[in-house]
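Appendix C reproduces, verbatim, an entry submitted by the partner laboratory led by Prof. M.T., so that reviewers can inspect both the input and the predicted structure.
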Amino acid sequence: MSDMARRRASRSAAVETYVDHRVGALVHTAGSPSTRATLARLRSAVGQAPGTVPEVWSVTIDGAPGAPRGDDPTPEERAIHIAMTLFAIHQQSRGRSMHVQGRGLGQAVRLLEHVRGVSDGGVSPVRRRFDALATASSMEEAAHHLRGLVGQFRSAGEGIGLDYGALAADLLDLQLPTRSQAVRLRWARQYYRLAERESATSSDEKPGPDGAAEPAEETPE
């Protein structure tokens, strides 16, 4: 790996760690008045530019990785702001965490289709939204489509969780010309490889409450 590739990987890892820590702290203190207030403030900042809502600076700006250059938000700040505010929407009124480590965006989309019984014969509305996100020409457009997906994840039964640290890293890489295609490839692999596993195990597994597969009960010998 070249020095430049290592630096890019380090940037992504730093953003993922930052968001994972922030979201984890909110999940850990779920139900407390201060956490409910923080989540409400984050929801009010959805669609706003990073840094324009002072009430959320402590969870989206304080200690954020990346070196500011000029007055525009850094790619890291954009990625963190979008991920944190969308998590607040996803988590609203949920008794369990919607931050599921290890579940990529492509996996969550496929699980949503599975929960809704989408046939492989056509392109579902959620898949069209996913495709629109993958081909978005700006971060504003990407955030718009991502918010639509999160709303669908939230409304599916007990909710389909998502790894928000990994999502933030994806959003950072999506802004980097040399990394954006890698993000799209990663999402595609997550989506189709999960589909392959579903097909291979459909007779032995059943959907869990969040759309994940749970092993069927074993028959005693």
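The chain has one domain: 3-66+73-201. Additional entries are available on request from the coordinating office.
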